[in-house]
Amino acid sequence: MKSEKRLGQIVSTAISGNDILSSALYVSGIAIIFAGIYAPLVLLFIGIVLFFYRTVYREVVEALPVNGGAYNALLNGTSKTIAATAGVMTILSYTATAVISAATAVEYLFLFLGNYFPKIHFGSYVIPTVIVILLLFSILVITGLRDSAKVALGIFGFHIVTLVVFLAVGIFFIATHGFGTLQVNAHQTGALITLHGGLPETLFLAFSASLLGVSGFESSANFVEEQKKGVFKHTLRNMTIGIIIFNPAIAFVVLNVLHISFIPSVQDSVLAVTALRMGGLLLTALISIDAFFVLCGAVLTSFIGVSGLVNRMTLDECLPHFLAKENSKNAHPRIIITFFLLCTSILIMTKADLLSLAGVYTISFLSVMSLFAFGNLILRQTRRDLKRPYKAPFLFVIFAFAATASGIIGNILIDQRNVVYFLTYFIPASLLVISLIYKRDIIYSMTKFTKHIPPVHDILLRKYNEVINRNYYVFINHVDKLYEILAYINRNESGGNITLIHCKEERKENTGEILKGLIQSLNTAGAFKTFNIKVKYIDEVFGPEVINNFALTHHIMHNRIFIGSIHDFHKFDYDELGGVRIIT
Fold it and tell me: Which residues contact 24 (CB under 8 A, 6 or more apart)?
């Protein structure tokens, strides 16, 4: 996408903010149920965790500004298998986000309509209405990101205004009614602490459950290529500020309006009920309408985020390549349609049961965030020399990882069925991805078992030859990295045609002749038998122009080009290379 068509700070914040700030509609209820009057403190602490994660994401994504989030970080720092695992978790997170957000949006819509049409039984229309919403956003994203971004911006602006109005009415309500309800809730909190076995246990479970309020923070990293340069760090900052301000303040207002004992019965619509107590039907209508639209905005974010991620994974051969076809609007219709069908199938299979979906949702996005922090640590070890515009303090990364990892444990303790729901979707998806990554070995094994079935054996043999004849291109500067490069390709890729390219350099050593000698030695030793290795020289200094011209003249995609780390002395950044993969 051309630079002038990329998204600015406000629109990018809106796309991500609709997802993460939609949590304001339900996370205060969750926090209060577990922590009572300590809920605002728990939510403030979660905001601090997000502050630390902001530095983690910024370091990795500014160094490797390619769509894919945790998947991309791990792909450039570890193996394709580990990266694909993170990718599957992210896809599951987006799927659950889309379905839960759409279903909850419909619940709010029907709550609003029920006040005016009490005789209509809206419950039977939930699933068909959710499908219609998913279909409408599928069509919207297919028509082009910029058009859908404008919709996201409108939704986000309305949501911020609504939350400000809610807090303003809440402050006025507290000023005129006093802190009587808060005092009653303080007494009831003692019973909660006793139930959970003590204050530390209570706060831990509340923290774990309330981490649901930061889901969506990873969204911006999954469409970073569509953002203008330098925008990403501002989206992280803006989302963090929103979470720190709104979630604790909303919880404080709710604690001054509703009794803790009443909140479990209205957990999914706690803001609407609080609004009814404070401002009557008018404020309730505002909250309900806003909830419907912002949750629909979260659906939109899911479609945009998964489109960027899945496209990247298809280009890297982790998912079927036919999904990557692009239309004139820079959208990927096949990815969107497939995602719509996946969401619809899960919706119908679970009969819109939010409990099973929440199990997938919580573990998926917490795992994704934890893997991102893990990827940050791995990159520090495997890509020490990688050019980084920003580097997060080491202790920040450790704290961030520990926070979300402990949150996974806490959510399992809260309801062990969450693991079952998660694995139900994770295992089949992972098997699909792994089968594509290791298709060379799988097909080769199948050819051995079908020797006595000539028609099948011949088909498999042709397919095997197609796979191993795929081409990869490696720009190599240091000859001592040759074995490491070939070992990486052998572990992570199926093709065997490798072209080693070395560019013009100031050193006098004859890199090409040295490479040919090393390759001959490897052949003599019988290493990498399936590889067909060639050496090519380009009489130009390595840089974006060389990469782009090479890709253009050889009619190859940039993800087929592998390089070593970009260093601080290079005058260009990674994003100028068009999405090549760093493997050493």
Answer: 163, 213, 246, 247, 250, 271
Q: Which residues on adjacent β-strands are paired with residue 562?
A: 474, 581
Q: How big, in percent rounded to 5, are the helix, strand and coil portions of the chain?
A: 75, 5, 20
Residue range 401-443, pLDDT digits in tens: 999 999 999 988 888 877 887 888 788 888 888 888 888 888 8
Q: What's 3-435's CATH class?
A: mainly alpha
Contacts of 266 (CB under 8 A, 6+ apart): 29, 258, 272, 273
Exposed/middle/buried for residue 537 (C-beta within 10 Å: 0-12, 13-18, 19+): middle
22 touches 298 (CB < 8 A) = yes
Q: For 326-341, what is each residue's pLDDT tens digit?
A: 887 778 899 999 999 9
User: pLDDT (tens digit, 9 = 90+) per residue, 254-276?
Assistant: 999 999 989 888 777 889 889 99
Express each pLDDT in 360-410 by its tens digit: 778 888 998 998 898 899 888 888 888 888 999 999 999 999 999 999 999
Q: Which residues contact 472 (CB under 8 A, 6 or more apart)?
A: 489, 493, 495, 497, 498, 499, 560, 561, 562
- This prediction has a pTM of 0.85
- Give the CATH number of domain 469-582; options: 1.10.150, 1.10.20, 3.40.50, 3.30.1490: 3.40.50
Same CATH fold assignment for domains 3-435 and 469-582:
no
Q: Find the mean pLDDT for residues 527-534.
A: 87
Q: How far is CA 56 from CA 68, 351, 407, in A?
A: 15, 38, 17
Q: Where are the domains of the chain?
A: 3-435, 440-468, 469-582
Token pair, residue 242, equals 């929103």
Q: Rounded CA gap, 403 and 398, in Å?
A: 9
